[in-house]
Amino acid sequence: MKLSNDQLKSLSAVLDKTREFELNCNECLDLVSEFAELELAKQSIPTALQAVAHHLDLCQECREEYDTLLKAIQEFGDLAP
Questions:
Q1: Which are the contacts of 21, defined by CB distance < 8 A and separation ≥ 6?
Q2: What is the per-residue pLDDT for 78?
Q3: Where are the domains positioned within the chain?
Q4: b/e string for 23-35 if b means 16 or more Cβ within 10 A?
Q5: Which of 25, 12, 16 has the alpha carbon at shortest distance from 55?
Q6: pLDDT 10s digits, 25-67
Q7: How much is the pLDDT for 76?
Q8: DSSP letters along 23-78, please?
């Protein structure tokens, strides 16, 4: 299978972002609600949760789950008295 130049550039960009330690999707999703609440509260993200941000940058599926969670938290917050 031959890759196009755009596919090679995309793959190279992802490889440039990889780290020695990476969360898998299950680990990321276990922490994503805590990450979302800190982000929405505009609080700093502790080092332990920065791996979540990194995973969300790389994984489109988890990013979609995260975006859905953010919307749900924001809507719930709008309903609070």
A1: 51
A2: 66
A3: 24-79
A4: beeeebbeebeeb
A5: 25
A6: 999 889 898 988 888 888 888 877 888 999 999 999 999 999 9
A7: 78
A8: --HHHHHHHHHHHHHHHHTTPPPPHHHHHHHHHHHH-HHHHHHHHHHHHHHHHHHH
